[in-house]
Fold this sequence. Notes:
By secondary structure, the protein is an alpha/beta fold. It has helices at residues 2-20, 89-94, 183-198, 255-262, 298-311, 402-415, and strands spanning 21-34, 39-49, 68-74, 80-86, 104-115, 119-126, 132-140, 148-149, 155-160, 169-176, 210-216, 269-274, 281-284, 288-292, 373-376, 379-385.
Amino acid sequence: MIALAWIAVMSVQAQDFDRYFENKTLRINYLHTGDAQSEKFTLKEYHAGGVWSGTRAFLMEPNRYGDILIEVFDSISGVPVFSRSYDCLFNEYRATEEAKTITRDFQECINIPFPKQTIKYTITCFNRLGVGTVLFAGYFNPKSTPTVPFSDDYTTVTLHQGGAPEKCLDILFVPDGYSKADAELLDKDLKDFTSYVLDCSPYKENKNRFNIHAVKCYSQESGITDPNKGIRRNTAIGCSYNTINTDRYLMCENVWLLYDVSDDTPFDVIVILCNSKKYGGGGIFNFYATVCNGAPEANFVVVHEMGHLIGGLADEYDANGSGEDYFPAGVEPKEPNVTTLVDFGSKWKFMMDPKTPIPTPETPEYNGKLGVYEGAGYVGEGVYRPWLDCSMKDIIYDNFCPVCTKVLIEIFDYYSNRESK
Ligand SMILES: [Zn+2]
């Protein structure tokens, strides 16, 4: 009965795409402003163009892995017609010492299919307890609201073609810190990083379900800004180490510019390739990921950060103990690959051998077995992971655990409009 009901919902949604949307993208740019105590959103402008490369069957996102939720409603009937969630840098800033006293602006945006009629949209923020608050509501009238057209400034290249954009996850590489003199290096890096994705499970078994493109944008100067070393570089999208005062956190705060550069070709997720030897990177669900070309484990780093970006996966390691507030006791995390055992039935319990104990001891007997191992999400106690040495935990390439693998395959299903098994 449940399967039948689900198919019915799917078919209604597939028809709804043509009823409510055009094959075009609308991007809403806004500022996310605040400090540790308060936050607000301020609308900046709308951009429109291209095609709609996202899902058509699952217009309402099946799992809310992000803490920021955009919901779109038909303004006349009030019917919800689209939703998508993401995580953001602002929420990481809020946890810092600086945020206790200093208010900061963070650029954010969301791509949605271009509506045929006036829509109402809301932005809801969820805290770590899972409580959501609607912080913004706006209207967009496709006939009268002004939009900035998508740009067409750069050459784009196809690195891997799995299928049509509306039936695939579209991954876009955006380079930063490559000058014109680095053109050969950029070509080599684009090729290498494409093979790092293609040679890793579950990507390698699903090659016809994703595409990889790149925007060939060059920077004025070679290298990446590193404030702690006094290095400043004039680069295409201005990536920098020491984001929110963490030395190896290499991120892009010019999010509107990043999306402007990216809109020359259809994309669902952005991976920024930085020309730098210093280890660094990051990945935020449905926001963007960064990697650098000089890291010795660059093949591992790119698929690990894409785990955050695409699957909303949590880090399965327990290092540095900074996560005490991140996974509060008594709350089941939204991240699909960690559990506090508050509602383990909603996680990977059904995939386990019923004879495996919960929690599972880290003994040789359980090596290579799906279990519930204590230590994950930056803490040693109270948060559990499914596998001893998944690629979301240890620096091991092509080693995603069965739970992370399943989540990534569900994301391929979402973008290729297929029902997950
Ligand atoms: Zn895993």
